[in-house]
């Protein structure tokens, strides 16, 4: 097989060989949302979740997850990220914690999976911290918002979000 593919000559899954790709600055932004009931949302906003500061723990979990993406997602390349950001916007009208993540590096492959992993793990951490109050929380949608730096240049989902991450 030729070109970038996860399949080898025998049709078996392998990690893509990116040796020949150029080192470029690459970045990606992803988002997720956790919807909570009124009681859980109020406790979260007040910082009164019994397990502690859910947003602080979720931020650290998201950053850690981005750095460990290659250990979690088969066939992902281990990357030396130069920036990982996890931010939250609390939307009381929707009872939603909006999560946005940003990842950047100078490398041969993109960071979309790292940004998506950070958003997913931050959302799951909020769930874990708040589940005693609201086991029926809803997570999602989780999606890629934008990416840049690859061969195809800049891509944007067209989905508007309430918060902006400062790259």
From TrEMBL:
Q: What is its EC number?
A: 4.6.1.17
Annotated substrate binding lies at: 75-77, 113-114
Fetch the InterPro entries from UniProt. Answer: MoaC (IPR023045), MoaC_bact/euk (IPR047594), MoaC_sf (IPR036522), MoCo_biosynth_MoaA/MoaC (IPR050105), Mopterin_CF_biosynth-C_dom (IPR002820)
The alphabetized UniProt keywords are: Lyase, Molybdenum cofactor biosynthesis
Q: In which pathway does it act?
A: Cofactor biosynthesis; molybdopterin biosynthesis
Which reaction(s) does its UniProt entry say it catalyses? (8S)-3',8-cyclo-7,8-dihydroguanosine 5'-triphosphate = cyclic pyranopterin phosphate + diphosphate
**Could you tell me which residue ranges the Molybdopterin cofactor biosynthesis C (MoaC) domain spans?**
15-150
Keyword Signal among UniProt keywords:
no
- Tagged with keyword Glycoprotein: no
Q: List the active-site residues.
A: 128
The free-text function statement in the UniProt record for this protein reads: Catalyzes the conversion of (8S)-3',8-cyclo-7,8-dihydroguanosine 5'-triphosphate to cyclic pyranopterin monophosphate (cPMP).
For this chain, the family text in UniProt reads: Belongs to the MoaC family.
Q: How does it assemble?
A: Homohexamer; trimer of dimers.
Q: What name goes with this protein?
A: Cyclic pyranopterin monophosphate synthase
Can you name the source organism? Microbulbifer aestuariivivens
């Amino acid at each position: 097989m030729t070109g970038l593919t996860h399949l080898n000559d025998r049709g078996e899954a392998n990690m893509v060989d990116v040796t020949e790709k150029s080192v470029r600055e690459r970045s990606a932004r992803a988002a997720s949302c956790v919807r909570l009931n009124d009681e859980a949302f109020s406790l979260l906003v007040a910082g009164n979740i019994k397990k502690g500061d859910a947003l602080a723990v979720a931020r650290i979990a998201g950053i850690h997850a981005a750095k460990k993406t290659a250990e979690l997602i088969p066939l992902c390349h281990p990357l030396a990220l130069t920036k990982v950001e996890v931010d939250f916007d609390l939307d009381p009208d929707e009872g939603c914690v909006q999560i946005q993540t940003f990842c950047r590096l100078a490398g041969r492959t993109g960071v979309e999976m790292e940004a998506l992993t950070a958003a997913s793990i931050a959302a799951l951490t909020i769930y874990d911290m708040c589940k005693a109050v609201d086991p029926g929380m809803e997570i999602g949608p989780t999606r890629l918002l934008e990416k840049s730096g690859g061969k195809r240049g800049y891509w944007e989902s067209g989905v508007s979000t309430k918060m902006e991450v400062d790259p």
